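Question: Send over one sample?
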Amino acid sequence: MKITAARVVVCSPGRNFVTLVIETDQGLTGIGDATLNGRELAVASYLTEHVIPTLIGRDPQQVEDIWQYLYRGAYWRRGPVTMSAIAAVDTALWDIKGKIAGLPLYQLLGGKSRERVLVYGHANGRGLEETVDAVGKYIDEGYKAIRAQSGIPGIDKAYGVGRGDTYYEPADASLPTETVWDTPRYLAFAPQLFAKLRDTYGEGPELLHDVHHRLTPNEAAQLGRALEPHRLFWMEDATPAENQEAFRHIRRHTTTPLAVGEVFNTIWDCKQLIEEQLIDYIRCTVVHAGGITHLRRIADFAALYQIRTGSHGATDLSPACMGAALHFDTWVPNFGIQEYMRHSEETDAVFPHDYRFEDGHLICGETPGHGVTIDEALAAKYPYDPRQLPVARLHDGTMWNW
């Protein structure tokens, strides 16, 4: 079997997606997600100009060798553009391998470790009461775990306050929107939000919160300690993790579980965090961490230290990535939870899929491969729409972490 063609599909059915389609001489097709929010065309160009020409004529069954070729063969290794491109190829090849075998992807990975995958939704509001109400709506819909984000008094355009009822899409303009951040106000407000949530809903729902890299290690330690009475499932991205040692200080001062990794691209980004057990959940995802092949290595490494997976799953991951992630989640022994932001109706129509939501969980289908396809004719009706992520500044104008 040989790869005879590959192409990149860029479309915007509600938001931008980059999809790699690989074809074989035996009529089998696989797709992989290559979306990098706000930098979509960089990955599309990398695939078209540098990756696709090297794939033609190769045996699509040699998934490991092709992964090594694309990683080791590129002198400029790692980084989000390169690893997202590799992930798209890897996901598409696993999709083809499943179709060759006539098996759903989880079977190729080793079979089921669970029957269903616990997911969490995103509840947000412009203020405390609105966020509390939003959490209640998710509970009514059957969710067992909910991430809560709220507008903060005195801070305009706070992170996590979405424009829709069931999703939050931060990329909002062709040039980055500038927002203002105020750490003291946030630190004073966040514990009040979770105190109110526990007072309203008791100990039943699992509650999560995303700090979005906004705090210093010491500030993150303070917040983690303040949130301990409210028993969070995790506190996510408490501080930037380029310096992995920064999490030592947080770990020493709070027992609130820590999650990080959605912006990680390789195992090297989390090596120290895992080895020193500085986190509880690793959030690397299929599309940005080199595909299933590399994510397996990260998860296996994490399992040695009793660290569980909690993969990123926002709307900037297409259904092709979510489908692959759910098969991965169904197999991986040290699974923790899967983020799940519902896509728009337009997105679901462009990417038909066989996974389904049921009682706070997602269940992957039994279709050979990862169970997601793309309607290219429909995708062509949604042309690329330039959108970038916001940036943040402090009140004095200093650039900060968005």
